[in-house]
C-alpha cells in the first residue's frame, strides 16, 4: 500500500532553489519546446466541427469527451436571483498528476511543456499527466499518455497529495479532477521524454511570477503543497524577503484540528443560509442566448460564447482535431487581500455560491470579478475597490490562463494585496480571515476551496 502523508517535507528548500543543474534555464526550455513543434488554431462554425452535433445540446458523436447544455439557476446569493446560461457537462474525472523526486537532496517536479489551443501563450508548463479517461483510454485514437502508470499503480510510492477537487464552477457543472503528487524514490530511474523537465519549486515560482507560463491544471495541483514540515523550520532564516517569510509562517499557522473544524463549521453555516437550485435544460430554452450553427452567444454579447476551433499540433497525442471552446469576456480578475493579524499573515476569503459546484458553496478569493457579469461600477462585488490599491500594497500581479483545453483566451489577472495592519477592512458576513495553513488543510480535505482561490494560493509558492 502507498504511504500517505499529511505534510510534505522539504518543499520549502525546493521553493528557495532558483536554479538546478538538471534544468539550468526553465525559460529557455519552454521556449525551445515551443519552437520544436508547429501549431495552428483556427476558429470555425460549430456546425463545421467533425463528429460534433448541435441541437438541444452540443455533443460528440461518441458520447465521450464533454457536452454543452443549458442550465437554469435560481439562488438567493448575490445580486441576480435567476438566470439561464450554457454550461459544460463533463462527468469524467480526469487525472492531474505531478511526479516529484529528490535530486541531489532537493525536490524536483517533472513538468510537461504542453500546448493547449485556448492558451494565449500556447505552450505552458503543465502537470506530468493531464488527461481525462477519454484521453488516456485513447478514444481519439492518439498516442498513449506518458507516465500514466505512476498515478494508477501506487505500490512503493509516496502519495504526497491526492484529492478530488472542483473546477471552474461558473462554466462546468459538477466537474471534478483528481489532483495528485506522487513521490518516487531518489534511486528510481525515470526516463525523461523530450517535452518534460525536472524543475524546482523555485523555478516554478519564477514562471508563475512571469504569468501565462504555468497552466491552470498544474496550479491547482501545486496548491496542495504544504510548507509547514518541521524539518523545514531551519530554512526560514534563508528567506530574506519579509513578505515571503510571512507567507511561509502563515503556512505553518492555523493547522490545528480545532481551527480547521471551526472553519468547516462556519462554511456549513454559510451553506445553510443560501439556496441554490439548478436544472439542466435544452439550449433552445435559454431566452437570453442565441444558439446557432455558428456559435452559442448571449444576445447582448455578455458573459461568454461557445465557438468552434480547428487545431493542429505536432507535439500532441493527436496531430489534429476539432472541438468547441468557451470564450469568456476579457478582463477577469481574482484577488486575495491579506493582512498581518494577531502576529500572523491571514487571507480574506469569501463563501461563494457557484452554479456548477457539487456542494453549492466553496471558499473563493476576496474578489472574483468577471466584468461581463456586472452592469456598471455601482454593481461591482464587495471590496472591489481594493483592485485599485496603492502599488506599495501589491505583492503579486500576474496574468494566468485558465484551462486552455476548454477555454479560449481565458486570461485572469491574479492579484495579492497586502493591507497594512492599521488599516480597517469592513467585510460582509460571508467573508472570513484564514491562514494559509488552514486553507491548505481544507484544500487537502476536498470540496472546500474553489479553483480560483487555489490558483492564487499556488502563486504564493
UniProtKB/TrEMBL annotation:
Annotated InterPro entries: EvaA-like, EvaA-like_sf
Domain dTDP-4-dehydro-6-deoxy-alpha-D-glucopyranose 2,3-dehydratase: 27-224, 264-460
Protein origin, superkingdom: Bacteria
Name of protein: NDP-hexose 2,3-dehydratase family protein
Organism: Streptomyces coacervatus
Taxonomic path: Bacteria, Bacillati, Actinomycetota, Actinomycetes, Kitasatosporales
Amino acid at each position: 500500500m502507498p504511504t500517505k502523508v499529511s505534510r510534505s517535507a522539504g518543499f520549502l528548500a525546493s521553493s528557495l532553489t532558483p536554479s538546478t543543474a538538471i534544468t539550468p534555464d526553465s525559460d529557455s526550455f519552454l521556449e525551445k519546446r515551443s519552437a520544436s513543434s508547429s501549431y495552428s488554431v483556427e476558429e470555425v462554425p460549430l456546425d463545421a466541427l467533425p463528429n460534433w452535433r448541435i441541437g438541444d445540446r452540443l455533443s460528440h458523436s461518441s458520447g465521450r469527451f464533454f457536452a454543452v447544455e443549458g442550465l437554469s439557476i435560481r439562488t438567493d446569493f448575490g445580486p441576480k436571483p435567476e438566470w439561464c446560461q450554457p454550461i459544460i457537462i463533463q462527468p469524467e474525472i480526469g487525472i492531474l498528476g505531478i511526479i516529484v523526486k529528490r535530486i541531489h537532496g532537493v525536490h524536483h517536479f517533472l513538468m510537461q511543456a504542453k500546448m493547449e489551443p485556448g492558451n494565449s501563450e500556447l505552450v505552458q508548463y503543465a502537470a506530468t499527466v493531464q488527461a481525462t479517461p477519454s484521453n488516456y483510454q485513447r478514444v481519439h485514437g492518439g498516442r498513449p499518455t506518458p507516465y500514466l502508470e505512476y498515478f494508477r499503480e501506487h505500490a512503493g510510492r509516496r502519495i504526497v497529495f491526492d484529492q478530488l477537487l472542483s473546477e471552474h464552477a461558473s462554466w462546468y457543472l459538477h466537474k471534478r479532477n483528481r489532483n495528485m503528487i506522487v513521490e518516487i524514490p531518489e534511486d528510481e530511474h525515470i526516463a525523461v521524454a523530450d517535452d518534460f523537465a525536472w524543475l524546482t519549486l523555485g523555478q516554478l515560482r519564477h514562471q508563475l511570477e512571469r504569468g501565462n507560463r504555468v497552466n491552470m491544471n498544474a496550479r491547482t495541483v501545486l496548491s496542495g503543497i504544504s510548507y509547514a514540515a518541521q524539518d523545514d523550520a531551519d530554512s526560514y532564516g534563508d528567506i530574506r524577503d519579509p513578505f515571503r517569510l510571512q507567507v511561509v509562517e502563515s503556512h505553518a499557522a492555523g493547522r490545528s484540528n480545532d481551527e480547521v473544524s471551526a472553519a468547516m463549521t462556519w462554511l456549513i453555516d454559510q451553506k445553510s443560509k443560501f439556496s441554490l437550485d439548478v436544472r439542466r435544460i435544452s439550449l433552445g430554452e435559454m431566452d437570453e442566448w442565441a444558439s446557432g450553427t455558428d456559435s452559442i452567444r448571449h444576445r447582448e454579447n455578455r458573459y461568454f460564447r461557445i465557438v468552434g476551433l480547428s487545431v493542429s499540433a505536432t507535439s500532441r497525442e493527436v496531430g489534429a482535431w476539432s472541438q468547441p471552446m468557451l470564450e469568456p469576456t476579457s478582463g477577469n480578475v481574482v484577488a486575495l487581500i491579506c493582512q498581518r493579524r494577531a502576529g500572523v499573515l491571514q487571507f480574506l476569503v469569501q463563501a461563494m455560491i457557484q452554479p456548477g459546484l457539487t456542494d453549492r458553496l466553496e471558499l473563493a478569493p476576496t474578489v472574483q470579478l468577471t466584468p461581463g457579469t456586472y452592469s456598471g461600477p455601482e454593481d461591482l462585488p464587495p471590496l472591489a475597490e481594493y483592485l485599485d490599491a496603492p502599488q506599495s500594497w501589491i505583492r503579486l500581479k500576474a496574468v494566468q490562463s485558465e484551462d486552455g483545453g476548454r477555454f479560449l483566451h481565458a486570461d485572469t489577472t491574479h492579484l495579492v494585496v497586502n493591507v497594512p495592519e492599521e488599516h480597517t477592512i469592513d467585510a460582509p458576513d460571508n467573508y472570513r480571515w484564514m491562514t494559509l495553513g488552514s486553507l491548505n488543510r481544507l484544500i487537502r480535505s476536498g470540496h472546500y476551496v474553489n479553483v480560483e482561490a487555489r490558483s492564487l494560493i499556488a502563486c504564493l509558492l
